[in-house]
Write a structure and sequence with these properties.
By secondary structure, the chain is α/β, with parallel strands linked by helices. It contains 17 helices and eight strands. The longest helix has 25 residues.
Amino acid sequence: MTSPSMILHVGAPKCGSSALQTALTRQPDVRSPTGLWLRYVSLRRVQDGYRPIYGSLVRRQGRSSAYGYASWPNFGRHTDGAPLLAALRQVLEEGQVGGWVPVVSCEGWINHPQVFAAALADWGYPVVDLLGFLRPPVEWVNAAWWQWGIWSFPTVDVWLDRQTLPYRFADDLEQWSQIPNVRLQVRRSRPDAVQTFSDLYAIDLGPRPSVNMSSPACLIGFLRRNRQFRPTPHDAQAEFIFQRWCPPVSGNRLWALSAEHVRRLRPTSRRCQDVLARILPQEARADLAADPNWYGEQGYHDAIRSGVSFLRAPEDLPRLYAALAAGIAAASGRPARDLPAPLKEADPVEQWDPVLADLLDRLTKADIDARQGGLVDSVIGIGHNLMRGGHSAKNSQ
């Protein structure tokens, strides 16, 4: 297979995008044994639009962000698409002249095949690898609820009725597949999107970052009660900071769906299967089929029987306190001192909240200091490596 002129990583959201963007931000220039040179490119906002940035500037941009990575903006009502496309064309042309393949990432671009169809036609239809990662619809809807829905809607039913985030990724990919010289490179997001990307292009992106995993239920409950740390569905900085520095808090993964929700999603699942079977090459279909949840519901039965995750369990809060205290020490590089004393396990959550808020404020400040001092460059998911022998990452989604 010939090398592409560009690799567009387009998502989907909640499908390993943050992990891949973090890995590429930390190592934006990488070569394969055959000499293929991939350059991860980000943007800097300038007065008249955007300027592409490369190399150490990408790493610096990632370090300055609480999310820990650099990426491209999505198209939307408040974003002028023309400067974005002009910058993308500039990157494409610079790569062709310089002998390298640009890697550009935005997890929301999967929904915009029409925008790219017009742009790529204007650019003479260069060969583009369309990199997409997917999760089965039921699993994705559950994850999307905890990422976005729960912060704006009272129940899953109301959220689904509003069709705020419909699962239409297969239909989007079908439109992408109709653009000349666009090659679909679609894979399942689990278990490791970073490794999958590395295998596709025979490169090594180094240690795997653990980012944007599912948060523990006790942290979600705390953030729901203390919205200054999570004011909107898109302000997830606190969760990224927690995961960067704190050891995992043991417990079952977050779950929000009932058997009726799963039944309601069956038509979506069947349509997705039919479309992907029609448009994807055999290798991609086989990769998706390796996840049994694409074609069956047995993998959700235990979670459905266990019920919706409980977010107000006082017995979980001592473990959350210990994780935050460990994260403060890890981020500051020294033992945490003068912390408020933990309460008792039986104390109500409302009494715990001011104590935990104090710790999260301290962790946020320590994270800023660490990023400004460059310590984050040497940290790869420290929270998920600390105490791994004593905790399992069951919260992973």
